[in-house]
Design goal:
Layout: H1 2-11, H2 19-36, H3 42-55, H4 68-77, H5 81-92, H6 96-100, H7 104-110, H8 113-124, H9 129-136, H10 143-153, H11 158-170, H12 172-183, H13 186-189, H14 201-218, H15 223-238, H16 242-266, H17 270-273, H18 276-306, H19 325-337, H20 344-368
Helix pairs in contact: 2-3, 3-11, 3-16, 4-16, 5-10, 5-15, 5-16, 7-18, 7-20, 8-9, 8-18, 9-10, 10-11, 10-20, 11-16, 11-18, 12-18, 12-19, 14-15, 15-20, 19-20
Protein name: Methylmalonyl-CoA decarboxylase, beta-subunit
Pfam families: OAD_beta (PF03977)
Subcellular location: Cell membrane
């Protein structure tokens, strides 16, 4: 009887459990707490955290060849899921604020500075060029772009980079407000912006077509991301295929989010995550995202001065491409200062520009490496 009990205990996960796995499980539970109790981007954090929890429970073999997550992960590994996410984002996003205020493109571009800062920092830390490029893209706060670029340039780093990118996307409401407040005065945060001009349907239809032609002709490597983003927006603005729009913005978006989130989380096993290299990637990613936010705000201050105080510099923080989370953060901080201040649509301009900007930055890095 004792032998049977001993054999049973040796076949359970408890006999295989390591301290490193316990640490990863605690981190996963921390993410679940933030998602469920604090409401920090639950659509992202819950799948990521539960995938992380499952893969660190010993003996399951979910990420081993033939396991459930092994097959689901192929869509992440080969860069299939990110363009699909871009299609869904395009179909659910109004580019009107960007078209109405083209100056927003400058704010979106300024917020990409964090990408190139982290790239140089990674080179200084000894990472190879393709690896540094993949780490740098975390600064765009765009998980799909980070996954796509890393799958092409440094697939061996896909796990920690994807997890860092999505984690910082989910933690936008925590990371951005202190940076915004540190770099702006109360008077600047209270600035009210004039209502943007009306954008016609023809402009909205022409925009994705023109952007696709210009960007893809200039950077063919950006075609998968920019092309799918603009295709999604075109089916939305054409008004001719409402069922396709409904499928992209609802069922397809949520299905791909589940698959991408849980497989990204499943890459965070204790062996690959708890090492000095991953800690460096995580630190560089946080620095990149923080600097991207700061550079967007600082350029917003420049534009505020140049326009005689007509632009609230906080909208520069939305230049990172976490759509629409960064724009919502700007709206919340603005209303905390002035309950009658409505900055959401103004912040969506730089936010959309940031999505395009991060895809273009990925195309540039792919061209270089």
């Amino acid at each position: 009887m004792l032998e049977i009990i001993t054999q049973f205990m040796s076949s359970t996960g408890f006999s295989l459990l390591s301290i490193q796995q316990v640490i990863m499980m605690l981190i996963a539970c921390g993410f679940l707490y933030l998602a469920v109790k604090k409401g920090y981007e639950p659509y992202l954090l819950i799948p990521i955290a539960f995938g992380m929890l499952l893969v660190n429970l010993p003996g399951g073999g979910l990420m081993e060849k033939g396991g459930l997550f092994y097959w689901l992960y192929q869509g992440t590994k080969y860069g299939v899921y990110p363009p699909l996410i871009f299609l869904c984002v395009g179909a659910s996003t109004d580019f009107g604020p960007l078209i109405a205020n083209p100056k927003s493109i400058l704010l979106g571009a300024a917020a990409q500075f964090g990408i190139f800062f982290a790239f140089l920092g990674a080179i200084a830390m000894g990472f190879l060029g393709p690896e540094a490029a993949s780490i740098g893209i975390i600064g765009g706060a765009d998980g799909p772009t980070a996954i796509y670029l890393t799958s092409q340039l440094a697939p061996q780093l896909l796990g920690p980079i994807a997890l860092a990118a999505y984690s910082y996307m989910a933690l936008v409401p925590i990371i951005q407000p202190p940076i915004i407040k540190a770099l702006t005065t109360k008077e600047e945060r209270e600035i009210k912006m004039e209502q943007a001009r009306h954008v016609s349907k023809n402009e909205k239809i022409a925009f994705p077509i023109i952007v696709t032609i210009l960007v893809v002709m200039l950077l063919p490597t950006a075609a998968p991301l920019v092309g799918m983003l603009m295709f999604g927006n075109l089916i939305k603005e054409s008004g001719m295929v409402p069922k396709l729009v409904d499928a992209a913005t609802n069922s397809l978006m949520y299905i791909v989010t589940i698959l991408l989130g849980i497989t990204v989380g499943a890459t965070a096993n204790a062996e690959s995550f708890l090492n000095p290299q991953t800690m460096k990637i995580t630190a560089l990613g946080l620095a990149a995202f923080s600097i991207g936010t700061a550079s967007g705000v600082l350029f917003g201050k420049v534009m505020c001065k140049a326009t005689g105080g007509k632009i609230n510099p906080m909208i520069g923080a939305a230049g990172v491409s976490a759509v629409p989370m960064a724009a919502r953060v700007v709206q919340k901080v603005g209303q905390d200062e002035n309950p009658h201040n409505f900055l959401l649509m103004h912040a969506m301009g730089p936010n959309v520009a940031g999505v395009i900007g991060s895809a273009v930055a990925a195309g540039v890095l792919l061209n270089v490496f």
